[in-house]
Structure formats: C-alpha cells, structure tokens
Design a protein that fits this description.
alpha/beta; 5 strands; single chain; 425 residues; five-stranded parallel β-sheet; elongated
Length: 425
C-alpha cells in the first residue's frame, strides 16, 4: 500500500479500514468457515464456483467476497446492480476476457444482485457459463425469489447469519487493536453493550464505535444507549425479514403463546410495518386458525382493524395488543378452513352437479311442472330439524366436509351435529 492509498484509507469508514483480508481474520460465519465445510474446502482448493452470498445487512457479504479474491489470487472487480449499467458491465467483462487470456482470473462481485435487470443478466450469463468470470453476488433477499432462475442455476447459494453479541464484541475489540482502528479503549461490558445495540449487524457495530470515539470522551454505557437510539431494528417491509417475522407471529399465535405473539407483533410495529398489514393478518388468523372454537375472535379482530383505521397509531396499538393476546390464548380450530378445502376438492372432482329439484324454488308454472320444490320438508314445521333429509347432490349425499373439533365453543357445535346427524357423525 503506497502513501496515497494509506491517506485514502485513513479517511474511509472504520468498517472499511479494519476489513479482514484473509479468511482466518473473518469473525463469525462458523458454519461456512469451519474446517470441512463446503465453502471452506472450495476456497482452500482454489476451485471457487459462482455463488450468491445471502444474508441480513452487516453479516460480511462484501468482506467475504474480497477475502475470496485475496485467498485465490483472483482480481476483485466490484459492480453495483443499482448504479452500474450494461455498457459498464460489458467493459468489465471485456477486461476479464483479456485477463483470462493472460492467465488471470476475475472475481466479479455484484452487490445487491437482486436488483439486476434483464439486460444486465443477459449480458452476464454467457460469461458466467464460460468461466470468464467467477460471479459472487450479494443480496439480503431470498435468492429463490429475487434472482433470475437462469443465473441462480449457475451459482451456489451460501447463507450468512447475523453475528452474535459475542462475535460482534470480538470484532469491536479487534477494531480497537487494529493499526488503522480507533484510538480509544473500552471495557468488555461496553463492547457487549454496543454489540447488543447493533442487532447482529457488524457494520452498525463498527459505525457506532467510530461515532462514540470521535470526540475523545470516555465510551460508557450511558453514551452507548444514547447513540443507539438512532439505530433501527433490522426489518425490511418488503423483504425476507418481513415474511420471516410475520410467519413467526402467526405460528406463535397458533401455538397459543401470547408472550411470543406479542413480541413478534411489536418487532413488526417497531420495525415500521404498516399496522393495517398486521391487523389483516389477525383477521385472517381469527377465521383460519380459531374459527368456531371461539367466534368472538373474528369480531375482536375486525374491531381491532377498525380501531386502527379510526384512531391511527400509536393509539391503535392498544386494540392490536388486546387482539393479539386474545387470539393467542383462544382455543384453536381450523375445521372451517378444512371444510371449504374439502368442498372445493369435491367440486373439482364432480364438476357442476345439478341442484336437487326439491331444493329449487318454484318461481313459475314451468318450475312447478318440473317438480321444483316438491318433497321439500320445512324444518320449522318439524321442530327445527327435518330428520333424515338430504341437501347435497346425489353423488355426495353422505359426504362430510366440516369436522368440528372439541375445542371451545366448537365442542358444543360438535355435540349438536352428532345428535342431529347420527348417521354422519
């Protein structure tokens, strides 16, 4: 590194100044880097395939890509899927072709590869196929949905995990000890406090440490807490974390765990999620997973949705929290959901079966001559139930779609149906 490089590095952010250069210097990602792991073996054998590095922000995707180039002596060439156009990409690919003719290798790093447009993908694909470049893409989005299938089929996907508090604390300690790091000391307790505030994000942790050390004052827990208020929870309203946390909320309510349910709901709220997205999920859950085991659940969910629309936030949060806890503790039944699925299966199998004549209304003389309504038994004339009557088309006369559970109010419904329809129940 010459004098000008050293001057440029001194003005770079701390995360860039202390970025690892070798695989042994990387903190975290033990599943990928441990001895015997596929990723580790590929690097040591210098047989890198094209790959997608997928994980939350600040987990080391860019760092790993640069380390790979150092470990394999390949030339590291960065390209932004957002800022770079096709002409720039083609220029880089032409350089890679020339480099390959001279015996060199090119590691093309594409940041935010999920933003690759079709023209960029079309320009890149043949060069990946021919091995002119080794593609290393980085994305926070699930590659199965965010990356073109043709490109994805030519790359291995490696998932990176958020760093633990201990790993982040170790990273911060190294940053303090690094020759180009911060000229400030901090206790292990303070480093753990910074790590906790960073929420698994190495870049946020290093940025927080750099900000706290800039004015020369002592770094203590009070200052960390004050600075951490500017950090947001890791939550992408349109990305992978959005769907993961929404899934966790639903599964926690389904599992009747109000503590977990309210936790995941508040993760969504504090992460900036649209509260109406959450209330829609609550309404759906009330019918799909509780149903007739507690019919009041749907009423409460609809009321919570209306309250949020009328009151806005944060006042609407009271109704959301009440509803979330109620749904989590309510008895569960998906019998209604299964009923319409079974009925739909029957429709697909038998098609449009005709309505039995006795169930049709005789609206005209022609209808009456056709026998419409003839033989229909009016339940109210028989004490509220016409025993032995049938209401389904003939091929489905004894079919059962609704199988009530023995949970909550639905248990009473089950008992009543068993009394009325002994031959079915």
């Amino acid at each position: 590194m010459d004098l000008f490089d050293r001057q440029a590095l001194s003005r770079a952010p701390l995360a860039e100044r202390v970025r690892p250069r070798r695989l042994s210097e990387v903190v975290g990602q033990r599943a990928l880097l441990r001895d015997g792991a596929l990723f580790s073996r590929l690097v040591r054998a210098d047989r890198l395939p094209s790959m997608i590095l997928y994980g939350p922000p600040g987990t080391g995707k860019t760092t790993l890509a640069q380390v790979l180039a150092n470990e394999t002596s390949a030339t590291f060439v960065p390209f932004s899927a957002v800022l770079g156009g096709v002409p720039h990409l083609r220029s880089l690919l032409n350089e890679a072709r020339e480099r390959r003719a001279m015996g060199g290798a090119t590691l093309l790093f594409v940041d935010e590869i999920h933003r690759f447009n079709k023209a960029q993908q079309d320009a890149l694909l043949p060069h990946v196929e021919k091995g002119i470049v080794t593609l290393v893409g980085a994305t926070t989005e699930n590659p199965s949905f965010a990356v073109n299938s043709a490109l994805l089929s030519r790359a291995r996907v490696f998932r990176l995990e958020s760093l633990s508090e201990e790993e982040l604390a170790e990273l911060l300690k190294r940053a303090i000890e690094h020759p180009d790091g911060v000229e400030k000391s901090a206790s292990e307790e303070v480093l753990l406090h910074i790590a906790r505030a960073a929420d698994g994000d190495a870049r946020s942790a290093l940025g927080l440490l750099e900000a706290l050390s800039a004015d020369g004052r002592e770094i203590n827990e009070a200052r960390v807490a004050e600075a951490a208020e500017t950090l947001r929870l890791r939550y992408d309203k349109n990305g992978d974390e959005h769907f993961a946390i929404a899934s966790a909320l639903i599964k926690s309510m389904r599992g009747s765990d109000p503590d977990a349910a309210i936790y995941w709901m508040m993760r969504m709220v504090d992460g900036g999620e649209d509260p109406l997205f959450i209330t829609r999920r609550l309404v759906i859950f009330a019918s799909e997973d509780i149903g007739n085991a507690d019919p009041r659940s749907l009423q409460l969910a609809v009321a919570a949705d209306a309250a949020v629309q009328r009151l806005g936030m944060p006042e609407g949060l009271f109704a959301m929290a009440q509803c979330c806890v109620y749904l989590a503790t309510a008895p569960k039944s998906n019998a209604s959901y299964r009923a319409f699925q079974l009925a739909r299966d029957a429709i697909k199998k038998f098609g449009s079966l005709p309505v039995p004549p006795k169930l049709r209304n005789a609206r005209s003389r022609v209808d009456r001559e056709a026998g419409f309504g003839k033989g229909y038994r009016y339940p109210h004339n028989e004490g509220g139930f016409a025993a032995g009557e049938t209401y389904l088309p003939d091929p489905l006369t004894n079919a059962r779609f609704y199988h009530p559970t023995h949970q909550g109010f639905e248990a009473r419904m089950s008992e009543r149906l068993a009394t009325l329809w002994r031959e079915r129940h």
